[in-house]
Amino acid sequence: MVDELGQIFDSSGVVVVAHYEGLTVAQMQDLRARMREVGGSVRVAKNKLAKIALEGKPCASLADFLTGMTVLTYSEDPVAAAKVADAYAKDNEKFVILGGAMGETALDVDGVKAVAKMPSREELIASIVGCIGAPASNIAGAIGAPASNIASILSTIEDKAAA
After folding, report:
1. Quick check: 106 and 61 in contact, CB under 8 A?
2. Residues 82, 115: contact at Cβ < 8 Å?
3. SS3 94
4. Which residue spans within 55-135 are E strands per DSSP?
5. Separation between Cα atoms, residue 123 and residue 63, nearest integer Å
6. Which of 27, 28, 70, 137 is the most exposed place for a label (fewest CB within 10 A)?
7. pLDDT, tens digit only, all 163 positions of the chain
8. Same domain, 62 and 125
9. Across-strand partners of 41?
10. What is the CA radius of gyration of the chain?
11. Closest listed residue to residue 102, CA positions, set 122, 123, 79, 83
């Protein structure tokens, strides 16, 4: 169990610790399902074992949050688990975020909320692809345009070069 938790702490982009006292089984299953949708996971572990697993890990600061009934939400994507945990905490008052860690950086509650507002890996990739694809679509549009449009584009470029 300690080795498994150690691997979680090593390989996760973000780990969020929260209290879950009072959540029903159905609510916990809902949290797990939401986390699975974004490639994350939920883990309930004994605090003592988690603290042992944290020894020597970059995110050892998480040990301070491991008191009471805690649950770990984590994902390789450095934003996904924080987004889901923050959204779930807004929907359910019994799920209370205590803090988290992103690599060596300790996060308090406000830090987790700030990370949750960041764009995810998929959103960043989509915006980069959009930026890269825009010039290509402009060139393709110009090539497919009638010859008169191409002539006006060339004359505009020539005017700019002369100025």
Report:
1. yes
2. yes
3. coil
4. 70-75, 96-102, 105-107
5. 31
6. 137
7. 888 888 888 888 889 999 999 999 999 999 999 999 999 999 998 989 999 888 888 888 888 899 889 999 998 888 889 999 999 999 899 999 999 988 888 889 998 898 888 877 777 777 777 777 666 656 656 566 565 566 676 777 878 877 6
8. no
9. 74
10. 24
11. 79
Q: What domain count does the chain have?
A: 2
Domain boundaries, position 46: 2-116
| Length of the chain (residues) | 163
Do 70 and 144 fall within a single domain?
no
User: 74 near 81, Cβ under 8 Å?
Assistant: yes
Measured CA distances, 90 to 12, 87, 94, 121, 133 (Å): 23, 5, 10, 23, 37
Structure tokens at 55: 């020894």
63 and 81 share one domain:
yes
